[in-house]
Design goal:
Blueprint: H1 30-40, E1 49-55, E2 61-63, E3 67-68, E4 95-102, H2 107-113, H3 119-126, H4 131-139, E5 146-150, E6 156-160, H5 165-175, H6 189-199, E7 201-206, E8 216-217, H7 246-253, E9 260-268, E10 274-276, E11 280-281, E12 307-315, H8 328-331, H9 337-350, E13 361-365, E14 371-375, H10 380-385, H11 395-401, H12 406-416, E15 418-423, E16 432-433, H13 456-467, E17 475-482, E18 487-489, E19 493-494, H14 497-501, E20 520-528, H15 537-543, H16 547-555, H17 559-568, E21 572-576, E22 580-586, H18 590-599, H19 607-614, H20 619-629, E23 630-634, E24 645-646, H21 675-684, E25 695-703, E26 709-711, E27 715-716, E28 746-755, H22 765-772, H23 776-788, E29 800-803, E30 809-814, H24 832-841, H25 846-855, E31 857-863, E32 872-873, H26 896-905, E33 915-921, E34 927-929, E35 933-934, H27 949-952, E36 961-968, H28 980-987, H29 992-1000, E37 1008-1012, E38 1018-1022, H30 1026-1036, H31 1049-1058, H32 1063-1073, E39 1075-1080, E40 1089-1091, H33 1123-1132, E41 1141-1148, E42 1153-1155, E43 1159-1160, E44 1181-1189, H34 1209-1219, E45 1220-1221, E46 1224-1225, ...
Parallel strand pairs: 4-5, 12-13, 20-21, 28-29, 36-37, 44-47, 56-57
Antiparallel strand pairs: 1-2, 1-3, 1-4, 5-6, 6-7, 7-8, 9-10, 9-11, 9-12, 13-14, 14-15, 15-16, 17-18, 17-19, 17-20, 21-22, 22-23, 23-24, 25-26, 25-27, 25-28, 29-30, 30-31, 31-32, 33-34, 33-35, 33-36, 37-38, 38-39, 39-40, 41-42, 41-43, 41-44, 45-46, 47-48, 48-51, 49-50, 51-52, 53-54, 53-55, ...
Protein name: DUF4329 domain-containing protein
Pfam families: DUF4329
Domain DUF4329: 44-167
Length: 1562
């Protein structure tokens, strides 16, 4: 044995400076540190590795990271310093307490030299200390009190030399070379082990079967393979490193989870230090401290010094056979009832080892790697969970049976004690305490589920409608069946068949399976396809497809989808544009298997897939293949698929349109709790094309036993009108009640009637009724069925829901006593014939007929419109448009294009519906635009904005004329096959319907048409001559003879969709026939200009120049009456600062100002022709000032870069040159990137007194910002010597430099002086008023309400407690010009600025320190405006919780009567609440009103405050005196309109929903 080759002495190296390897974490014992090093050594190493165990000054132990030595030798001199005597030296700050090395796995070599040994002896020999190991360890015992050997088979042994004579004799024998014949000698493996165990202390730290799986001290008579542990614990167990948290200790213990899953956690009594025992197999024994720690001398268990028991831990691995039927994904990642019961049972033994007053905890590492902590409470619920002999109070069995859900069990555990998440996972997403409202997968955005439907087909039809025209991306979702047999779908989310097959829309369990909602079984999946426009025409050429082939390819189940359907055997619905909706259910037949085989896989496509890709097999042939291999069903009638129903293997795409007939399966809406809700949904889903006049009808069914209602699909009224409200038109008959094949349990409850929105003259009363109500014939039919209703069926009438063409939803219920349309009572003049005759002769007005119907029963408005603009019951006083409110108007502009640009800025950034409005021309030639609203379609009627009655009611702006319509376009995919350029043109041009409306109007009624395009452009078309359009189109078409004589929009759209007419050519035709202008350019439309010949991306063809000259009039701001206000508008505009821009402020002869919207400087040197066409200013305007809008500083620029807070000196020099005028310098405004707005007006001459050579006073030119000085300043910037503060002071001396809007750098308002410094404290509000007592004003508005609305948007969007604002509205006596004051902020603790704003020049309080305000000539106060601070007190009662939602009487008095006493004619008072609501009160100035406003709301009587007038009572009494209105609704005031005696309920009603948008031609 001693002759094993390679074993040589481990003598120390000569003196040197070896490098101590990196040390590991700290441990409580050296055994733990040694075990850490042992685990770091590779399994079955090919060489020896070594490490040393060190003790720190704090008593902790660390081990160096093991480093490799030679194959059969490790020299510790490579890691420990050796002195001159060859002795080891302790590393600085450490004490060496042990060494550790391993043996290489030289099993083969040992066998070769010892052929008689069995495998056990081979393994024991190689895993034991060699003779030279023993000699070296005994020799170094003073330095290394212990030595560890890491065996290649996983064992870790420890030998502690004893210093006994027997050990010394054995050491000498070994050192002498182990000569034979010595009585102390050992000559076989076992005798060596026994000898070493007898002369010193030999321990097994990490064991295996060779050592009987025993740990502890090895007895001297031990035999190989035998266990020597007697069941008594004598040593501390192996423990983890010392951690700063229990979580860290448990995770360290369970780092390699195997069968060993449970253990104990200890905590320091004085510090946040934790250790955990290394895990053992799960079970109660693993949580019993007696099985872990030895007893002390007192018989009590001995724990590491300074530590107490913190708790127990385990890694939960529930058995799959115990999983509950649902929520197994939660069960496998939580405590099981049995685990809780065991833990509670073990607590009794363990708690005596806990720190005083500290409860024990149970730590659980879940399968998903989350770490949960349960802290024992001793509660009754906890006690019940731990009843001995149960599985957690029987909860395990209840979980298994499904009578208890895992989520409910989680709640039980939460109630029993304290539950925390220490380490999160997708399931346990929120760290910290877990309460009863805990939600699984809290950070996952769960798909929203739809309402329930009767069938899966109905649910998917709903999803298809939600996708609608969003065809630029693909969407996907799931169809679920609930336990009640109803169906729901997930709302569409971006994805495709791959996404839903992988389950990515839902969170996944530990096996990667999606976690679906409880009680929802997966029934099917759905995907959407992109629009036809996503294909390129070249795709058709390559595959030799027709346009129909291309359309079918995007509407059928694709190859990828078919593969997945066959693989998963789950039905799939496919949603496509143009009403394409199909379902495919695979068969399990040989034909289906053959089809799946021929499709192949994505990596290895089959023959059929390859032939489809090349065009050899056409889409129609693939559809037939699918119909043969499964059930392929069409769910919507369409031109491409024909009528809905199952597709047969011989299917061909229909050549002619389908004819409406009774469907095989009626489509229904969602299930609702009321008929009104079902009708509301039916109304909202009515999005058919409204190209022709047609009426539709349907039914609402009710469940016979439950309050469940569903609306049917709509069916067209026949030409002969003989099918209206007939059940047999929609449902097949049956021979038993309810006589028609309704869904099980349902019967007819109500009728639904709808007419499509079309344009027609309203001169005929019947046309009026068709658009705003219902023709008498149709309501008479509904009445007829009500009269025929069986007494057994119901004693009530059949409700009739009417969806009117103008967007209202009405509900009519006939009274049983009504004689309306009763032919048996002709003398009542209520027969259908009599009513029709009177309507035709004009003896009966349409609105009178409405009142007759309302009087015959109950007529309610469920959804309002302009005509029906009051929700609730229609009474005898009803009139159409009786509650109309005036439309909001934007500010006043010089040109209609400017008004359109501003209107576009008012549309919400991510609007999903088309918005539109009108542009009006005022009597003074200026323009205003209505604020955008949702419109029914792009080609909306003017009456959607201003009904005819608005002129008679005074709601149409007086003296104005409608000049133009504007509308927005929502980006979407379209069902037209075009090249990428033509597609962009099609998506960003005015619709054909809109243009034909413009072209066919009389010249006196023709309107300009504006379109806000998705690409950012804004174009305008002034109508041309239709004959010129027709002639140009004829020249473009191949078959020009096929051009119809009555060319209309429908024909043009058909030409575009078939590819005969390209969108670009159509735009060019319009440009040649009319006036097509680009107001705001884009890449597609090019620069703003008049378009005479249209070319896409025209900017690409322009020759490069120094700068691009303006080809059109610039876009300009609204009109202002202050130049500073126009500059402030440009400063606050949401424009890009990527490049430096500039513009000009112009002044009209009458004193109005407007600013051009800034354009990039390029290399123009601020030239006029960069902004104005040919450099010519608009007529009637002169140049007032210049605006420079600074760019953001370059990325990576230093903090001292001038461009952070100003512009470069050369930019100032260019502005100086442009501002130079014969009569002095024009002002220059600098809009800085840091938010400051500055105004510089240079002196005409150099400041100071100068004399010429003759001694005469000399006026020298202003030298600031000359080209020479600017060049010097730029050089200083480049060299780093530029002083910006000095530069600003020079600028201030050279002119008047004023800070209008502050920033952190430009922190002080007003004119700057020689003492200016950055970040100076701002002046007080009083000093600021002295320096500038001209309050900032907003733009000019047409109406005072619009001015007040603008001011309301300028107050802080995030109200601050105790901060209010004051404002006012100025107006002129003649023209409709109203200007708001910009809100002036003040604190509730300081005087209101009201007295400053409203102070006449002759006021006695006026002086130099308190000057009167300056307002432009011709403008006087017409209204006061108060913001946010209501003045209401909390001392009195406020049962209506008005709080700050309206002003107190005293403040209202101060803003009306008090101001009138001072001579101000205040016509209106506006109040803006902190919630953004705008209210208006028009005072009557009567004594009763004054007395009310002077009422003290509270009084102090009898030692307490008494309420004399609550805010709610004040509102009620005030509304009876003057007119109190909500102009802008919001928090608290949810409805606009006049506040009347029913305001308490009216204010809480939600605002009416917008119009249901019809499909536009795109």
């Amino acid at each position: 044995m001693d002759d094993v080759p390679g074993r040589i002495d481990r003598a120390a190296n000569p003196p040197g400076k070896p490098k101590l390897p990196q040390v590991g974490p700290a441990f409580l014992t050296q055994e733990d540190a040694a075990y850490w090093a042992h685990r770091k050594i590779p399994l079955k190493p090919d060489r020896e590795y070594g490490s040393v165990i060190l003790q720190r000054p704090d008593g902790g132990f660390v081990a160096t990271v093991p480093i490799a030595g030679e194959v059969t030798r490790f020299d510790f001199g490579t890691v420990i310093e050796v002195d001159a005597k060859g002795s080891y030296v302790h590393p600085n700050g450490y004490k060496c307490v042990a060494n550790l090395h391993c043996h290489a796995a030289l099993h083969d070599k040992i066998r070769e030299h010892n052929p008689k040994w069995d495998e056990l002896l081979v393994r024991l020999f190689i895993s034991f200390f060699s003779d030279l190991d023993f000699v070296a360890d005994v020799a170094a015992r003073d330095f290394f009190p212990a030595a560890y050997l890491s065996g290649p088979d996983g064992t870790l042994l420890k030998y502690s030399p004893s210093g006994s004579s027997a050990e010394h004799s054995y050491y000498l024998w070994r050192r002498a070379g182990s000569p034979t014949g010595n009585p102390v000698g050992t000559y076989d493996v076992m005798s060596i082990i026994n000898k070493v165990a007898s002369v010193g202390e030999l321990k097994v730290i990490a064991s295996n079967a060779d050592w009987g799986n025993s740990v502890g001290r090895v007895p001297a008579d031990w035999k190989a393979g035998q266990s020597f542990s007697g069941g008594t614990v004598s040593d501390f167990p192996l423990m983890t490193r010392v951690c700063v948290s229990a979580e860290g200790a448990v995770r360290a213990a369970l780092k390699t989870v195997d069968a060993q899953t449970s253990g104990l956690v200890l905590k320091s009594l004085t510090e946040e230090k934790y250790v955990a025992t290394h895990p053992r197999p799960a079970g109660l024994a693993a949580w019993d401290p007696e099985n872990w720690f030895p007893p002390g001398s007192d018989g009590q268990l001995k724990l590491p010094k300074g530590y107490a028991l913190e708790g127990v831990y385990f890694a939960s691995r529930p058995r799959p056979e115990e999983f509950p039927p649902s929520q197994h994904w939660l069960y496998e990642n939580f405590f099981t009832p049995q685990e809780m019961a065991d833990a509670i049972a073990s607590r009794a033994k363990a708690e005596r080892l806990a720190a005083s007053g500290q409860p024990l905890s149970l730590y659980m590492q879940a399968k998903d790697d989350a770490l949960l902590k349960y802290t024992f409470s001793g509660s009754q619920v906890e006690t019940a969970l731990g009843v001995k002999g149960t599985d957690g109070a029987g909860l395990q069995a209840r979980l298994r049976s499904g009578s208890l859900r895992t989520r409910e069990f989680v709640s039980v555990v939460i109630l029993a004690g304290s539950l925390q998440v220490l380490r999160g996972s997708a399931l346990w997403a929120r760290l910290g305490p877990v309460d009863i409202d805990w939600t699984p997968f809290a950070n996952f955005s769960w798909p929203i589920l739809s309402r329930a439907f009767l069938t899966a087909d109905d649910a998917v039809r709903y999803a298809h409608e939600q996708i609608g025209q969003r065809r630029e991306h693909t969407y996907a979702g799931y169809v679920f069946q609930r336990e009640d047999k109803r169906f729901v779908v997930t709302e569409p989310l971006e994805g495709d068949i791959a996404v839903i097959s992988r389950g990515e829309l839902y969170p996944c369990d530990t096996k990667g399976n999606p976690v679906f909602p409880d009680d929802h079984a997966l029934y099917a999946r759905y995907v959407s396809h992109k629009a036809l426009s996503q294909l390129e025409p070249t795709d058709l050429l390559v595959r030799r497809w027709s346009r129909q082939d291309a359309a079918l390819s995007l509407q059928m189940v694709s190859v990828e989808e078919a593969r997945q359907v066959f693989l998963d055997n789950i039905p799939l619905y496919v949603s496509a544009a143009q009403n394409g909706l199909v379902m495919f259910v695979p068969d399990q037949t040989a034909m289906a298997q053959d089809l799946a085989r021929r499709l192949g896989t994505a990596k290895h496509p089959g023959a059929l897939a390859r032939s489809l890709a090349t065009g050899e097999t056409l889409p129609q042939a693939f559809i037939k293949e699918q119909a043969s291999a499964g059930r392929l069903t069409v769910l919507l009638n369409s031109e491409l698929w024909g009528e809905r129903g199952q597709i047969t293997p011989d299917w061909i795409s229909p050549a002619a349109p389908w004819a409406w007939k009774r469907p095989e399966q009626v489509a229904f809406g969602a299930v609702w709790a009321s008929a009104d809700e079902a009708a509301q949904e039916r109304y909202a889903r009515d999005t058919r094309l409204h190209d022709s006049e047609r009426a539709w009808f349907g039914f609402i069914l009710k469940h016979k036993d439950r309050e469940e209602y569903v609306a049917t699909e709509m069916f067209p009224v026949g030409e002969s009108r003989n099918n209206v409200f007939q059940l047999q038109s929609m449902f097949a008959r049956q021979l038993a009640p309810p006589w028609y094949q309704f869904p099980e349990g349902f019967d007819r409850h109500a009728f639904f009637y709808s007419r499509q929105r079309v344009k027609h003259s309203l001169s005929d009363p019947r046309s009026w009724l068709a658009q705003y109500f219902i023709p008498p014939e149709d309501i008479a039919i509904a009445t007829y069925y009500t009269q025929r209703r069986s007494v057994v069926e119901s004693n009530k009438g059949i409700p009739l829901y009417m969806s009117t063409q103008d967007g209202a939803l009405l509900k009519y219920e006939r009274s049983s006593s009504s004689r309306l349309f009763d032919a048996a009572a002709p003398n009542l003049d209520l027969t259908l014939e009599f009513i029709n005759r009177n309507l035709k002769q004009g003896k009966l007005l349409p609105e009178e007929f409405v009142r007759i119907v309302a009087g015959s029963g109950q007529l309610n408005v469920l959804r309002t419109s302009l005509c029906w603009n009051g929700a609730g019951r229609v009474d005898a006083d009803w009139r159409p448009w009786m509650n109309l409110e005036r439309r909001w108007l934007g500010p006043v502009f010089q040109s209609p294009g400017d008004a359109a640009v501003h209107a576009r800025s008012q549309i919400p950034a991510f609007a999903k519906k088309t918005h539109g409005g009108l542009i009006l021309k005022r009597p003074d030639g200026l323009y205003v635009a209505t604020v955008p609203i949702e419109v029914s379609r792009e080609d909306f009627d003017v009456t959607e904005i201003y009904p005819e009655s608005s002129k008679t009611t005074g709601l149409f702006p007086a003296g104005c004329q409608v000049m133009a319509r504007y509308r927005s376009r929502i980006g979407r995919g379209v069902s037209v096959l075009l090249s990428s350029v033509e597609k962009q043109a099609y998506l960003n041009m005015l619709s054909v319907d809109t243009l034909f409306t413009a072209l066919t109007q009389a010249s006196t009624d023709a309107l300009d048409e504006y379109l806000f395009n998705p690409d950012g452009s804004l174009v305008c078309y002034q109508c041309g001559v239709l004959d010129r359009v027709r002639a140009h189109i004829a020249s473009l078409l191949k078959d020009y003879k096929g051009l119809p004589a009555d060319l209309d929009a429908k024909a043009i759209k058909q030409f575009i969709r078939t590819g005969e007419l390209k969108p670009g050519d159509w735009i060019d035709s319009l440009a040649k026939a009319g006036n097509l202008r680009v107001i705001v350019g884009s890449q597609l439309w090019g620069a703003p200009r008049a378009v005479t010949h249209w070319t896409a991306f025209s900017a690409d063809s322009l020759a490069p120049t120094q700068y691009r000259k303006a080809l059109n009039a610039p876009v300009c701001s609204p009109l202002f009456i202050q130049a500073d206000a126009a500059a402030r508008y440009v400063h606050e505009a949401g424009l890009s600062r990527n490049n430096q821009t500039f513009g000009f402020i112009l002044r009209s002869a009458e004193g109005s100002f407007m600013a051009s919207v800034p354009v990039e400087v390029q290399r123009s040197s601020l030239a006029l022709d960069r902004v104005f066409q040919n450099g010519q200013l608009p007529a009637g305007f002169e140049l007032d000032s210049i605006c420079i809008r600074a760019a953001l500083p370059p990325l990576g620029s230093g903090l001292d870069d001038v461009r952070h807070v100003f512009v470069m000196p050369t930019d100032v020099q260019q502005a100086r040159a442009r501002a130079d005028a014969p009569h002095g310098y024009k002002p220059v405004y600098f809009s800085c990137a840091d938010g400051a707005l500055l105004k510089l007006t240079l002196h005409s001459y150099e400041p100071g007194t100068f004399f010429d050579r003759l001694g005469q006073i000399e006026l020298r030119p202003n030298s600031f910002a000359t080209p020479e000085q600017a060049a010097n300043d730029e050089r200083d910037i480049a060299s780093g010597t530029f002083n910006f503060t000095d530069y600003v002071r020079r600028m201030a001396r050279a002119g008047t430099l004023e800070v209008i809007e502050t920033s952190e750098h430009w922190s002080r308002h007003g004119v700057l002086g020689d003492d200016w410094q950055p970040r100076m404290s701002d002046v007080s509000s009083a000093d600021r008023w002295i320096g500038n007592h001209s309050p900032a004003l907003g733009p000019i508005f047409h109406h005072a309400d619009d001015a007040a609305r603008h001011a309301g948007t300028k107050a802080s969007h995030e109200p601050v407690l105790g901060i209010g604002y004051e404002g006012a509205i100025l107006g002129t006596s003649a023209a409709n010009r109203f200007v708001p004051l910009e809100p002036i902020a003040y604190s509730a603790n300081e005087d209101s600025p009201l007295s400053r704003i409203f102070r006449a020049p002759g006021d006695p309080a006026t002086n130099l320190r308190n000057p009167a305000p300056r307002y432009p000539a011709g403008y006087t106060f017409v209204a006061s405006h108060q913001f946010h601070l209501s003045g209401n007190t909390t001392l009195g009662g406020d049962a209506d919780e008005v709080h700050a939602n309206f002003a107190a009487p005293a403040l209202l008095y101060a803003h009306t009567h008090e101001l009138k006493k001072q001579g101000f004619a205040i016509l209106d008072y506006y109040y803006s609440s902190p919630g953004g609501v705008l209210l208006k009160y028009t005072p009557v100035y009567k004594d009763e009103e004054r007395d009310l406003l002077l009422t003290r709301t509270v009084a102090f009587e009898g030692g307490r405050w008494i309420s004399r007038l609550s805010p709610g009572e004040f509102i009620s009494r005030l509304s009876e005196l003057g007119e109190l209105r909500v102009l802008v609704a919001g928090y608290y005031w949810r409805q606009t309109g006049r506040i009347a005696n029913h305001w308490r309920t009216h204010r809480q009603q939600p605002p009416s929903a917008g119009l249901t948008r019809s499909h536009d031609e795109l």
